[in-house]
Amino acid sequence: MIRLRKIACVLTAFALFALSLSACRHTPDEQQVREAIASIAQAAEVGAASDVGAPLSEDFDGNAGELDRRGLTNMVRLLALRDEHIGVTMGPVSIEHRGERMVATFSVTLTSGGKLLPDQMGLFQVESAWRKDDGKWRCYTASWKHSM
Questions:
Q1: Which class for 36: exposed (0-12), middle (13-18), buried (19 or more C-beta within 10 A)?
Q2: pLDDT digits (tens, 9 = 90+) for 15-61
């Protein structure tokens, strides 16, 4: 009887340990960055300014001072208020580790049905740099170039 209890306790402890290990699995860092990039694209399409800004660091710098986090979210907010739609088509994302940081490069095509930003639409090559802030990957800088 005591032997059966010991075996039951050991099996229960083993089962709890196995469950706790499966709960500890986390999404790989590269996948987290890819998901953050995709979430920014989706948020831009629906005009969700706060969701566009969520994966960006507070000190985000876009195109060497051309656009900060607040400026980017305000631009998305303005487009949403004007009821303008931005279409975002992403190319493949390439990620390179650089120490404790990552650099993601990709192409993106922006389209618009409105009149506010027609000259700023088209194909862009983007390079974004990411770091971990408070356990989450945040984009702290990005640069983009208009491609054909």
A1: buried
A2: 434 334 344 567 899 999 999 999 999 999 999 999 999 999 999 99
